[in-house]
Amino acid sequence: MGKAKITQISVPEGWIDFGIGQPQIDILPLEYLAKAATHQFGKKDRNILQYGIQQGNGDFRISLAKFLETQYNAAVDPEHLFITAGISQALDQICTLHTRPGDTVIVEEPSYFLALRIFADYGLNIIGTPIDENGIIIEALEEKLARHKPVLIYTIPTFHNPSGVTLSANRREKLVGLSRKYDFFIVADEVYQMLAYTSTPPQPMAYYDTSGRVFSLGSFSKILAPGLRLGWIQTKPSLLEPFISCGYLDSGGGLNPFVSSIVNSFIDLDLQKDYLNFLRKKYQDRMVTLSEALRQYIPSLAFTDPGGGYFIWSCLPEGTDTEILLSQAHEYQVGFQPGIKFSSSKSLGNYLRFCFAFYGKKDLIEGVKRLSRIIR
Known about the structure:
alpha/beta; Aspartate Aminotransferase, domain 2; Aspartate Aminotransferase, domain 1; eight-stranded mixed beta sheet; four-stranded antiparallel beta sheet; 12 helices; 16% strand
């Protein structure tokens, strides 16, 4: 019997796949988490093995709020936090509680392709709206709002996936203003908020909310480990009430109470702060390595260096089909994500997304060299 598969993605030996948007296995903090678990188990509190309170363990929310305050440079009220099983689960729960089949959701063009999958699963009508180097183009969005009545707008405001751009503070304010005028929710996927390398982003969208229409979604997947399946929603308590009182949590209790207890110790021991600083330095170095290699070996690619996050979003001349290019790249054991996957209208065919989080510098350079053999 062969070895059972235990992770979502496994890369064949010898391959370099820039399409993988995950942290490298070798830098996941197993030893740090073992130290945190020992600290938590030393308390001998068997309550961490019981069904958890619906909103999330109160002690953990207090520790999380204190940590977020140091990162956001702004107050965070633990009562404004709801613990989730990651951003994907939060998105799914928002759709369960606030949408019906046939409702409209407006997304950025491009947008995170797996979020588009979640919206499609709920039978939602997905409308794309363009972005530029400062995020959502507000004038173009308002034109769409005049023709459609979205239940929500899904945005990745900071170090966007895949484009890497950040929504400016001015546009964040205008977006919240439009949510009041046209009565829709803003769902802000802020998984990369704390992964800033060369620029400081505006505060999370929750701080621009003046009327109770913003859900700011955070996660430990990119700042600690994705296998924890642990995240949070930050919003007004009135918006959290439907989540806290829903049948799903009434039956199963709060999400991930055991894991959140370990992460509580991880934060309290200052391990999260230290590990986050380590990731910022590591990813910044890798981002610089990848961007320099792309410019050296594939000068026909056009892209802008991101200020943070995981990705470099690039394009080739009009008429290039990056899906065909990907099939050719596989002959050289190298991969990437073609732009069409991120499009709600099946366009962006000449775009590519590269991730620099999954590989070290040597492999990043080698992967670009391989790809350069088919991009001339």
